[in-house]
Amino acid sequence: MYNTLIHPNRDIPPTASAGHHITLKHVADKPLFEEVGPTVMGYLEGAVIVAHNTQFDRSMIPETGSTVDLLYRLGRHLWPDDAPAFGNQVLNTG
């Protein structure tokens, strides 16, 4: 098992921090993905990745194979007219 925060090498929008409570202060001394990527990708080899929003996740990490875009699509299916948005910070309010 491997667990680390990764410095995104860009700003973390306030709306994202509101959902996951991680700010640039929390990742200031953390490695960039380029530094830990080979280790992470080794763990992901052959795995099915369950993602909230595959389009965004793909912009952050390289292709890993099979991905299931479960949460975002499920939210759009269950609450097509009721949710103001479908990001984690909106859907994860329970």
Automatic annotation (TrEMBL):
Coiled-coil region list = none
Fetch the InterPro entries from UniProt.
Answer: Ribonucl_H, RNaseH-like_sf, RNaseH_sf
Molecular function GO terms recorded: exonuclease activity
The Exonuclease domain is annotated at 3-60
Q: Per its UniProt record, what SUPFAM superfamilies does this chain match?
A: Ribonuclease H-like
- Which UniProt keywords are present, listed alphabetically? Exonuclease, Hydrolase, Nuclease
Its domain of life? Answer: Bacteria
A Pfam family it matches = RNase_T
Indicate the secretion signal residues.
none
Q: Which CDD domains match?
A: DEDDh (cd06127)
Query: Would you tell me the protein name for this molecule?
Result: 3'-5' exonuclease
**Originating species:** Alicyclobacillus dauci
